[in-house]
């Protein structure tokens, strides 16, 4: 099963500028190329899905290409981190540093767990985005079979034939937590997937959502 078929989150970018250490020029350029490859296939998902369908061979082929590209990117990013540690905005600029994060975010659970402490430290030092850390923490949680904190992770439900928010803890206060890390209100966020946020309705649906997601997780583990 290709997780990219149904699991989505939105990355937060900033217009802020940071002084960049020219010592890291070559690795910055490498990461900008990695960033391009990371987004190349993801930018085509909506178009291919709309044109050919969710279960089409064309979409499956796109995900195969995307997964191969992700594996290439991860090899490079792990080599960079091993040599330099986590490179923040101060050394390689915002876009290149964010590319480091995105490659980790798009990796398997064990990789995400491996680099989570590094990203947490980068946030503390002001060299990583707290909103992106929130996305990573949510993704790790849902793949561990736990509830997410910020409501950033969604998937396509075959039961409802619509996108739904994966199990979310304390949904009444989710906007407070999102605001603390610089994320927009959940109602605005999920509207991108034609979801109308209603906390009471979500709470009522949560048991069924949890059951469906746990079933999907079992399939992922088997595969």
Question: In brief, what are we looking at here?
Answer:
The protein is mainly α. The protein has helices at residues 25-42, 45-52, 57-84, 89-92, 94-105, 109-124, 130-143, 174-180, 186-190, 199-222; strands at 154-157, 162-165.
Structural overview:
- The protein has ten helices and two strands; from the N terminus they run αααααααββααα.
- The protein has 223 residues and is mainly α.
- The chain has two domains: 13-143; 154-222, no CATH class.
- It has a two-stranded antiparallel sheet.
- A hairpin with a 4-residue loop joins strand 1 (154-157) and strand 2 (162-165).
- The protein starts with 24 loop residues before the first helix and ends with a helix.
Rg value? 18 Å
H/E element sequence: HHHHHHHEEHHH
Q: What does the largest sheet look like?
A: 2 strands, antiparallel
In total, the number of domains comes to 2
What's the oligomerization state? Answer: single chain
Poorly predicted segments: 1-6, 12-17
Count, helices: 10
């Amino acid at each position: 099963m290709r997780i990219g078929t149904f699991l989505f989150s939105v990355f937060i970018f900033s217009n802020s500028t940071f002084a960049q250490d020219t010592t890291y020029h070559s690795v910055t350029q490498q990461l900008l190329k990695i960033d391009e490859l990371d987004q190349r296939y993801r930018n085509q998902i909506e178009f291919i899905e709309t044109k050919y369908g969710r279960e089409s061979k064309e979409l499956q082929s796109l995900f195969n290409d995307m997964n191969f590209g992700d594996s290439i990117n991860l090899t490079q990013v792990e080599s960079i981190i091993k040599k330099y540690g986590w490179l923040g905005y101060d050394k390689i600029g915002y876009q290149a540093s964010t590319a480091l994060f995105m490659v980790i975010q798009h990796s398997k659970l064990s990789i995400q767990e491996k680099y989570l402490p590094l990203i947490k430290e980068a946030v503390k030092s002001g060299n990583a985005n707290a909103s992106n850390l929130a996305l990573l923490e949510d993704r790790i949680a849902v793949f561990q079979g736990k509830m997410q904190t910020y409501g950033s992770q969604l998937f396509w439900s075959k039961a409802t034939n619509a996108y739904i928010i994966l199990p979310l803890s304390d949904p009444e206060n989710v906007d407070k937590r999102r605001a603390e890390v610089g994320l927009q209100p959940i109602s605005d966020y999920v509207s991108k997937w034609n979801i109308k946020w209603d906390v009471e309705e979500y709470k009522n649906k949560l048991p069924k959502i949890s059951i469906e997601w746990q079933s999907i997780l079992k399939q992922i583990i088997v595969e």
